[in-house]
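User: Hey, quick favor. My workstation is busy. Could you predict this chain's structure for me?
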Amino acid sequence: MPRSSTGVRHYDEGTVRIIDLLVRLRRTGMPVAQMRDFVTMMAQGSRTHGRRMRLLENHREEIEARIRELVDDLDSVDEKIAHYRRLIDEGLDCAEEPITDPGELIEQRRTGDPDGQEDR
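Assistant: No problem, here it is.
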């Protein structure tokens, strides 16, 4: 990339779009080797449009699979949060038995972080 007289690089709009795409591809887990292949194909021009499209379609399928996994994982976490909320609301221990010790009930409702920091 060309530099100004002060040494600052100047990127044209097309280069900025490519960099933005590469950042997004990396953030979504595309391996660097595939990103290199993509950039190499870009340099080869329009004859690689089909191969680039296939590479991106394959990566899209991987992203969608990861999203489905994350949604399932989030559902599992939400279920556990609801479980603990119910135990707390009903004053029950892990065996679903009523807690009779007032001190334990107070502790059960604490929401500070697990490292012993202040309640939020």
